[in-house]
Amino acid sequence: MEAFDQVAKREELPYWMNKSQACTYANVSDKTLKKFIADGLRVMVKGGIERISKKAVDDYYAAAER
Questions:
Q1: Dihedral (C-alpha) 15, 17, 20, 24: value to the nearest 10 degrees?
Q2: At the top level of its lineage, which domain of life is listed (predicted)?
């Protein structure tokens, strides 16, 4: 049941996420997200606001599997 709750919570997140939401989506801590960004996770910055897309997180994980 917990797994279903986690999936539902991830699906409720917006496509363009702030860093806190991206941590939830990627199921990682803030510290780990910072490492992902340093390693190449794409972050969009517009008007000084940083956003991370769900696709960017999915692509990052897919590249890590290769």
A1: 20
A2: Bacteria
